[in-house]
Backbone:
């Protein structure tokens, strides 16, 4: 009988992003026989670890192997607890480079995915997304229209996040 996969408050759907593979393993962290294997990055001095989703969700893998799952920067306005949860209890988000993990309402936002897969007027026209697009345009010395056009074509990647408290959207730039 298959166990229900744990939920990750800061990652909407790691299954869609193929972060986990359904296969029989023995987890390096808990030693249990499991049906799911983590496929993402884990920053630790230990190598060749086989980690189950449950040991990510409860922080056991991170604590046992003194590692983290994210290569990201965080705002000082994000709570220490939410930053720690993203670093140590959230599967890694596949990005080209370290990204800025946005926050809102004092908490880290939940990762949704590449904006191209969730493109909608509701998201693009939201005040928080517009503010992020303007900030990205200023940073890259592009216009907001260029940012959106390049993101639509996949020439740059805008990572979509959602506030865990109020549901507002945030965007982060990821360049390849």
Residues:
């Amino acid at each position: 009988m298959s166990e229900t996969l744990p939920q990750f408050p800061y990652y909407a759907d790691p299954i869609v992003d193929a972060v986990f593979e359904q296969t029989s393993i023995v987890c390096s962290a808990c030693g249990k026989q499991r049906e799911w294997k983590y496929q993402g990055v884990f920053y630790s001095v230990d190598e060749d670890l086989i980690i189950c989703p449950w040991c990510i969700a409860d922080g056991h893998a991170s604590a046992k192997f003194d590692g983290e799952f994210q290569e990201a920067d965080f705002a000082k306005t994000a709570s220490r607890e939410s930053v720690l949860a993203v670093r140590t209890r959230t599967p890694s988000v596949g990005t080209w480079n370290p990204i800025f993990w946005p926050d809102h309402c004092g908490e880290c936002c939940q990762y949704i995915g590449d904006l191209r897969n969730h493109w909608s007027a509701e998201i693009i026209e939201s005040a928080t997304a517009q503010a992020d697009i303007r900030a990205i345009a200023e940073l890259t010395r592009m216009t907001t229209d260029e940012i959106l056009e390049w993101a639509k074509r996949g020439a740059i990647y805008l990572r979509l996040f959602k506030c865990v408290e109020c549901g507002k959207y945030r965007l982060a730039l990821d360049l390849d």
